[in-house]
Specification:
The protein is α+β, with helices and mostly antiparallel strands. The chain is built from three helices and three strands; from the N terminus they run ββαααβ. Strand 1 and strand 2 form a beta hairpin. Helix 1 packs across helix 3 and helix 2 crosses helix 3. The chain starts with 5 loop residues before the first strand and ends with a strand.
Amino acid sequence: MSLDDSFYLRNELNQTVVFTATPRLDESGAPESEAFLPHATYAREALRAILDAQQDPFANLLTELWLYVYQKPWAVPDTVDKLIVDIADKIEYRELFVYLD
C-alpha cells in the first residue's frame, strides 16, 4: 500500500470516511482523532454500516478497499464477511487508519 494515498467512502450519515496507511497529524504534530475505535469488533460493525449506506449489494466498494489495503487481486475473499474481517483486522493492528474528512 502506498503511503501517500487514501481511499474514500461515505458512511450512513453521508460523511466522507478516509482510509489511509499513515496516521494523520494536526498542526501541533499530535495524532488526529480517528473516525472510530481501532478495535476489530467496532470496526466490523462500522464497516457493515458503511456497506449498508453505500447500497452496494455486491460489496464492490469494500472489495476495492480490500484491494487498496492488501494489493493481492488473486487473493480477494469470496464473501463480504471475510472482506470485513480482513479490513477490520488491519484497523485493529494499526496498519490502516480511518478518519472523517
